[in-house]
């Protein structure tokens, strides 16, 4: 995705340096249920409001020249939630995809889903496949949605796939390096996140992008996900730009 510098300078808050923005932001969207409870609303209303917050963040990344956004939408552990909530989330994902596809095309968004997609309901799998197929040639922001995703599972399946290639004689053991390993991850082809944002104050990464997060800067905010807006994102980026990223060096 390319945004002209003149357009970027018109939209980017003046205290942010356009040359030091993260190129890939990942978000753990936590706090929907607690937000709803504080509002005296059922949990599903928190999830609905969370969709709006994600749309706003996607637009903000586009406006501010951040080329990649990855959202943790549903983990492999989330199947342990009450069945009514899981069913609602599956239905919500499907409806949102169907409803928003036209706008994503208009905004040149390239959407990609990562995770154990075969474990999702068939109708949702079909919507996911259609959205990825329809947007695959788009050259705007890369929007990745981690769904039925677990970082440990991702690493295990990569190891199994590599072992199978070695067993079949397609790959030599000495040829296995970080690049080969990354090519077998769900996220193959994506750059690692520069910044991980977690909302609602929890101080953990919850099995998300375990390999890819090796050198990501982590920012935790007390703001619940449904309330995470441009101001909150601005604060996260300002904090990020104060960091000295050394990647293990002095």
Could you characterize what this model shows?
This protein is α/β, with parallel strands linked by helices and 250 residues long. It is 43% helix and 14% strand. The chain contains eight helices and six strands. It has helices at 5-11, 32-38, 43-63, 83-106, 122-135, 151-167, 178-182, 230-241; strands at residues 24-28, 68-75, 110-114, 142-149, 195-198, 217-220. Strands 3-4-2-1-5-6 form a six-stranded parallel sheet, with helices on both faces. β3 (110-114), α5 and β4 (142-149) form a beta-alpha-beta unit. α2 crosses α3, α3 runs parallel beside α4 (83-106) and α4 packs parallel to α5. The radius of gyration is 19 Å and the shape is globular. The model has no long low-confidence stretch (mean pLDDT 95). Belongs to the UPP synthase family. It is an enzyme of class 2 (transferase). Keywords: Magnesium, Metal-binding, Transferase. Mg(2+) binds at residues 30, 217.
CA-based shape: globular
* Oligomeric nature of the chains: single chain
Percentage beta strand: 5-15%
Order of helices and strands: HEHHEHEHEHHEEH
The largest β sheet comes out as:
6 strands, parallel
Number of strands: 6
**Structural class given helices, strands, pairing?**
alpha/beta
Radius of gyration: 19 Å
Q: Ends: how far apart?
A: 32 Å
Family: Belongs to the UPP synthase family.
Active site: 30, 78
Function: Catalyzes the condensation of isopentenyl diphosphate (IPP) with allylic pyrophosphates generating different type of terpenoids.
Pfam families: Prenyltransf
Based on the model shown, name its key terms.
UPP_synth-like_sf; metal-binding; alpha/beta; 6-stranded parallel beta sheet
